[in-house]
Amino acid sequence: MPEGDTVWQAARRLHEALAGNALTRSDFRVPQYATVDLTGRRVLSTVARGKHLLTRFEGGLTLHTHLRMEGAWKVFGSGERWRGGPAHQIRIILGTADRDAVGYRLPVVELLRTTEEEQAVGHLGPDLLGPDWDPDRALANVLADPARQLGEALLDQRNLAGIGNVYKSELCFLLGVTPWLPAGALPEDRAEKLPGLAKRLLEENRDRPVRQTAGLSRRQATRPPWPDLFVYGRAARPCLRCHTPVRVADQGDGSQERPTYWCPTCQSGPAPAAGSPQRWRDRYPRRTG
Fold first, then answer.
1. d(C-alpha 187, C-alpha 203), whole Å
2. Active site includes 68?
3. Catalytic: which of 91, 99, 211, 258?
4. Choosing a second label site near 41 at 20 to 30 A (CA), which of 86, 186, 253, 265?
5. Hey, what CATH topology would domain 135-262 get?
6. Mean pLDDT on 84-100
7. How far is it, in rounded angstroms, from Cα 142 to Cα 183?
8. Active site residue 3
9. Which residues, if any, are the signal sequence (predicted)?
10. Which fold has domain 4-121?
11. How many Cβ atoms from other residues are within 10 Å of residue 65's Cβ?
12. Which candidate in 2, 179, 259, 272 is catalytic?
């Protein structure tokens, strides 16, 4: 599932491509909205709310979409060949005189009244990249269930909106605790740092083409590939701080387990329970050392 910074970038691309222009093409390829035609309506804005996208149109309508694991919005110039997947994966096309916004594999497509947006996103906690950010409330939400594993609490969008699996692993590393630590056992000084650190990670990466948390410049690396992240995607590779091999295991409730990376030396706290799957390996090449 995309992180909050990725969704923020998608909202910016859609806003820059569509806002202020009238639609010349409107094609909803989902059964519920197959007869909907927004042609002629002016696009007012696209904003991110956590991992949700809200595209607003004149006349008081909002298109709510969510990317989840496989969805993507692509923007193309007039006459440009679309590259985002086969045609049967297209769910929405919104076109203007010089731009086409094409939604591929979107698992959530919902058209609602703008006044009713809270029905779609009202359950979310404070948005790390939004105007409603409230660090005290976010921390209180995370600590509300003291027995819950910190990694799971961070992923719960009802607590704070925007953290995905990458930032869960990286944030726990920077706090020096494992993702399996009960939230209530997080030392007070580290708990106080959590909201500000989470916000800074997303803010510093929302304009980057490649996400980076390690803060290492290319001059500090002896050879490529350059390290961008401390632990995520670095299974069996040396920790950038202590050189202990980074470990990875599944974390979740069984219905939605996520690969979770940590350094057993730099991070204190519980490891996965005995017998927990530790089978994940990097599936895609990453620009990490």
1. 25
2. no
3. 258
4. 86
5. Helicase, Ruva Protein; domain 3 (1.10.8)
6. 97
7. 7
8. yes
9. none
10. N-terminal domain of MutM-like DNA repair proteins (3.20.190)
11. 25
12. 2
Q: Position of tokens 């990249």? A: 129
Structure tokens at 289: 């050392």
Dihedral sign from CA coordinates of 10, 15, 16, 18:
positive
Neighbours of 50 (CB within 10 A): 24
- Pair 267, 172: CB distance under 8 Å: yes
The whole model's pTM is what? 0.88
* pLDDT bracket for residue 276 (50, 70, 90): low
Q: Which residues pair with 90 in a beta bridge?
A: 104
Residue 204 bears catalytic tag: no
Domains of the chain, by residue range, sit at: 4-121, 135-262
DSSP-assigned letter for residue 3: -
Question: Of these residues, 3, 168, 195, 206, which one is catalytic?
Answer: 3
- Cα dist from 146 to 107, 173, 261, whole Å: 33, 20, 22
Look at residues 121, 122, 128 and name the one whose alpha carbon lies nearest to residue 164: 128
Peptide bond before 225: cis, by omega within 30 degrees of 0? yes
> Is 258 in the active site?
yes
User: What pLDDT digit, counting tens, does each position of 172-200 carry?
Assistant: 999 999 999 999 999 999 999 999 999 99
Per the structure block, which two tokens stand in for 233?
Answer: 């995607």
